[in-house]
């Protein structure tokens, strides 16, 4: 293929690096495929541009507008995915490896777009938790909120997933409203640059929202501030070097690290040969060794089995690994490609040599290339350590390739201790059909692992497997894994925002968060709120209904109709014996039904459907003879599309004494 000259994208322009350029070679052939460099790029100006242009432009958008932007970017990548697949082959990735990277990356953006539109308000401020009462009279309250940081997210990515690794960080960052500067790893930067170029050419991102560094970062970190974030994926050594940068320490720059770790997989005591869990364990360990040639931060590096099963595990794994076809990833039938570079191959061989001092190789040969030529090919290497407590290297040294070590354990407590000996990991998997064993393992080991998969015959068919990070779940881990968190749905978005505790009156805080808060003013009008479109409604618009008496006949009729004959509704003596009640009480769902009858306007209009009820609380019993009334208040509104939007109503049901009987949020779909 033609040698690519990679460009930097700085201040909304593509800029070539000055002077001599570094060469990037194909993992498959060893030929030069790209040249890269960033000499002459003004990194301080890039940061200034992001803060001055990109940040304000993103913060003007609502969460929903940013979410739609992510969807457009993901669609652009999917529309041109074949271009990326072709480049991906040069990284040593097979088509299925590339699917994880390319379509998996786009899928991450789709996921964040969907969650942003479903779980975040169509506003610019995110409420965090419930309002806190700070005074007896209710005129002084507190509310936690999130607002976007006013700096830049610097993303320093690893070589193994140049597309997914970039997009998994950009999804929550852009949804939060923060601009980013992306720095890919050099060995696969040509694939990252191609995906980045597609995002820019989609034409949906505001100026300054994204920038790209094709070469080194130069003095970039020297110009960071307290509003910036550094999000890093890679080795522990590089992470520690970055995290100890004097500016990062001085400015308290947020640092999110996802470091390589020695992830473990455990065969449960109940999962002997012949059980589905045994077969699943062998299949998963082999798959994690060979997918992406084992170059996954979540790959299984340590596989543990009961001592009585370890020989069977070795035999089954060796047989499965021997059948793996290795070669040019473009060729049909190839199951494992090459490592990302010859440098990576040398690093993996060096790590295997260190491991082999305390464990023996039982499958594969690290010194014989399975493919002729100058590519970075290596066969899967399985090691075995029969005394894992006297072999520290297997718990401390990671060969970042198709390498794993099997080891026996005595009992479940020993397995827990061995898993934790890795000193923190991104992912762990346990193969068992015994719930008690799984509970013991989670309680004993959960604190050491960012994600734990308990796999058995029930979930295997639909499971995404040990090594698949998911956008809705946290990707990160404690200790050796870096102590950081990425993705995790909306949790990941808040990593790029500041939580602030607001204090003031309910009216003032409601005006800031664009949501009615308890104690804030309510406005009544002559028009029933169900007759108003979203554009015609105001936050705080309230309907106060007439009252309706609840009598004993209502309660008994409701019981007969629904079949709910719970004693508190039907037996006066038993109800009085209950410490909560003073006699027979109305059904909670009768109260809800009567409340709906009081506030619903039945004629066709802008309200399209009632689709939910949240935060329901029954606070005061309703006795025969009590009269209930309802206050229905517009709490928040969000337009979804041209046809409809969501209105959230605060519903309070009162009795004749003015006591709150029930409260809840009603969700309706309305015409915009």
Describe the structure.
The chain is α/β, with parallel strands linked by helices. The protein has three domains: 43-125 and 141-259 and 492-497, 3-Layer(aba) Sandwich (Aldehyde Dehydrogenase, Chain A, domain 1), CATH 3.40.605.10; 263-469, Aldehyde Dehydrogenase, Chain A, domain 2 (3-Layer(aba) Sandwich); 514-670, Hotdog Thioesterase (Thiol Ester Dehydrase, Chain A). 33% of the residues lie in helices and 25% in strands. It contains 20 helices and 29 strands. The strands form seven sheets. A seven-stranded mixed β-sheet has the order 15-16-17-14-13-18-19, with helices on both faces. Strand 20 (474-477) and strand 21 (484-487) form a beta hairpin. Helix 2 (63-79) runs antiparallel to helix 4 (95-119), helix 9 (276-290) crosses helix 10 (310-322) and helix 13 runs parallel beside helix 14 (435-445). The two termini are 53 Å apart.
Gyration radius, in Å: 30 Å
Structural class from helices and strands?
alpha/beta
CATH class of the largest domain: Alpha Beta
CATH topology of the largest domain: Aldehyde Dehydrogenase, Chain A, domain 1
Helix content estimate: 25-40%
The major β-sheet equals: 7 strands, mixed
The CATH superfamily of the largest domain bears the name Aldehyde Dehydrogenase, Chain A, domain 1
Number of strands: 29
Low-confidence spans: none
Tell me the number of helical segments per DSSP (H or I, 4 or more residues long).
20
Distance between the termini: 53 Å
Number of structurally distinct domains: 3
Task: Give the amount of beta strand, in percent.
Answer: 15-25%
Based on the coordinates given, report the CATH architecture of the largest domain.
3-Layer(aba) Sandwich
Strand order of the largest sheet: 15-16-17-14-13-18-19
Average of the residue pLDDT scores? 94
Shape call: globular
């Amino acid at each position: 293929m033609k040698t690519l000259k990679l460009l930097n994208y700085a201040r909304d322009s593509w800029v070539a690096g000055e002077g001599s350029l570094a060469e990037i070679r194909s993992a498959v052939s060893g030929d030069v495929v790209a040249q890269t460099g960033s000499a002459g790029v003004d990194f301080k100006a890039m940061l200034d541009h992001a803060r001055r242009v990109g940040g304000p432009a993103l913060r003007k958008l609502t969460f929903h507008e940013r979410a739609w932007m992510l969807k457009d970017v993901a669609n652009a990548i999917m529309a041109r995915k074949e271009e990326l697949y072709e480049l991906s082959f040069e990284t040593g990735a097979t088509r299925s490896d590339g699917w994880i990277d390319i379509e998996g990356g786009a899928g991450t953006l789709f996921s964040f777009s969907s969650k942003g539109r479903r779980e975040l308000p169509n506003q610019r401020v995110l409420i965090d938790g419930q309002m806190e009462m700070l005074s007896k009279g209710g005129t002084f309250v507190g509310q936690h909120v999130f607002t976007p940081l006013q700096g830049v997210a610097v993303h320093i990515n690893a070589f193994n997933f140049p597309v997914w690794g970039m997009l998994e960080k950009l999804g929550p960052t852009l949804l939060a409203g923060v601009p980013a500067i992306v720095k890919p790893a050099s060995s696969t930067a040509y694939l990252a640059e191609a995906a980045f170029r597609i995002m820019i050419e989609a034409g949906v991102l505001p100026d300054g929202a994204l920038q790209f560094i094709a070469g080194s970062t130069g003095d970039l970190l020297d110009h960071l501030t307290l509003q910036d974030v550094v999000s890093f994926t890679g080795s522990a050594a590089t992470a520690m070097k970055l995290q100890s940068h004097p500016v990062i320490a001085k400015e308290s720059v947020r640092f999110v690290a996802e470091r390589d770790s020695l992830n473990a997989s455990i065969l449960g005591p109940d999962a002997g040969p012949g059980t589905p869990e045994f077969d699943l364990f062998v299949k998963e360990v082999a798959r994690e060794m060979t997918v992406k040639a084992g170059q996954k931060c979540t790959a299984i590096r340590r596989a543990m089995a009961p001592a009585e099963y370890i020989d069977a595990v070795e035999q089954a794994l060796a047989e499965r690994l021997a059948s793996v076809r290795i070669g040019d990833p473009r060729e049909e039938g190839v199951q494992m490609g090459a490592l990302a570079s010859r440098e990576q191959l040398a690093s993996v061989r060096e790590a295997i040599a260190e491991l082999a001092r305390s464990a023996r190789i039982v499958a594969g040969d690290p010194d014989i290339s399975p493919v002729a030529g100058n590519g970075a090919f290596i066969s899967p290497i399985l090691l075995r350590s029969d005394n894992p407590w006297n072999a520290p290297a297997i718990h401390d040294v990671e060969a970042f390739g198709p390498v794993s070590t099997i080891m026996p354990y005595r009992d479940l407590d020993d397995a827990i201790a061995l898993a934790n000996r890795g000193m923190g990991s991104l992912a762990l998997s346990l193969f068992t059909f015994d719930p008690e064993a799984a509970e013991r393992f989670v309680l004993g080991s959960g604190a050491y692992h960012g994600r734990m998969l308990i796999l058995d015959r029930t979930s295997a068919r639909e499971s995404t497997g040990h090594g698949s990070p998911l956008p809705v779940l946290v990707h990160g881990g404690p200790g050796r894994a870096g102590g950081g968190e990425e993705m995790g749905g909306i949790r990941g978005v808040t990593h790029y925002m500041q939580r602030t505790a607001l204090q003031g009156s309910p009216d003032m805080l409601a005006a800031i968060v664009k949501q009615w808060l308890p104690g804030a003013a309510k406005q009544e009008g002559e028009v029933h709120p169900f007759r108003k479109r979203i554009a015609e409604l105001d936050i705080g618009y309230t309907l106060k209904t007439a009252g309706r008496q609840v009598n004993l006949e209502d309660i008994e009729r409701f019981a007969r109709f629904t079949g709910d004959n719970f004693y508190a509704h039907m037996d006066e003596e038993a109800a009085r014996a209950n410490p909560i009640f003073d006699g027979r009480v109305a059904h909670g769902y009768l109260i809800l039904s009567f409340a709906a009858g009081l506030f619903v306007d039945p004629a066709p209009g802008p309200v399209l459907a009632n689709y939910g009820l949240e935060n329901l609380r029954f606070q005061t019993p309703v006795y025969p003879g009590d009269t209930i009334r309802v206050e229905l208040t517009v709490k928040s509104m969000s337009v979804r599309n041209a046809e409809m939007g969501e209105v959230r109503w605060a519903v309070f049901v009162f009795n004749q004494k003015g006591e709150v009987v029930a409260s809840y949020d009603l969700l309706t779909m309305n015409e915009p």
